[in-house]
């Protein structure tokens, strides 16, 4: 059996908004990028069964603009977590295909650590806003997930789509 992870960094956020970082919304470019990424995911058949996300406003807005109506879990502990914290939360999931939304630097490190071989894309290691990696794991249950076992299915960034 195969489990699929869609690992996405939130879309571009607005820096001109006063208030805590956790509450920063998306800017116009981020809103457009999230919609484009949602369309790309659907066009390629990468439709999640569930979403696991940071509780930050920008990750929630990114998810909303992707346009998926699936069960979702927004966790404060996924706001700027380590890759170990992300792994721990992902191991609690049961869906076959999980979309995980997060932040850098953790999301980039998590993507790199999960894969057996990284994609040949010049933006993978930077993991810019709304970067998305689709990866498969030959496991029956997320509790069996180990670093270095993922196979890249696809990787893209908003600039590739516009």
From TrEMBL:
Binding site for substrate: 58
Disordered: annotated span: 12-31
Any Pfam family hit: His_Phos_1
Gene3D superfamilies associated with the record: Phosphoglycerate mutase-like
Protein name (Swiss-Prot/TrEMBL): Phosphohistidine phosphatase
The organism of origin for this protein: Cognatishimia maritima
């Amino acid at each position: 059996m195969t489990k699929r992870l869609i690992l996405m960094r939130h879309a571009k956020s607005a820096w001109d908004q006063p208030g805590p970082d956790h509450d920063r919304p998306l800017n116009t470019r981020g809103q457009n990028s999230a919609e484009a990424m949602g369309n790309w995911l659907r066009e390629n058949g990468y439709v999640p069964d569930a979403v696991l996300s940071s509780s930050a406003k920008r990750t929630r807005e990114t998810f909303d603009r992707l346009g998926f109506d699936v069960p979702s879990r927004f966790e404060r502990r996924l706001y700027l977590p380590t890759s170990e914290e992300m792994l721990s939360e992902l191991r609690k999931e049961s869906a076959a295909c999980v979309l995980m939304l997060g932040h850098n630097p953790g999301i980039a490190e998590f993507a790199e650590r999960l894969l057996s071989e990284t994609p040949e894309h010049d933006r993978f290691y930077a993991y810019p806003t709304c970067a998305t990696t689709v990866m498969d794991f030959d496991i029956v249950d997320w509790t069996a997930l180990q670093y270095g076992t993922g196979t890249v299915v696809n990787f893209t960034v908003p600039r590739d789509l516009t």
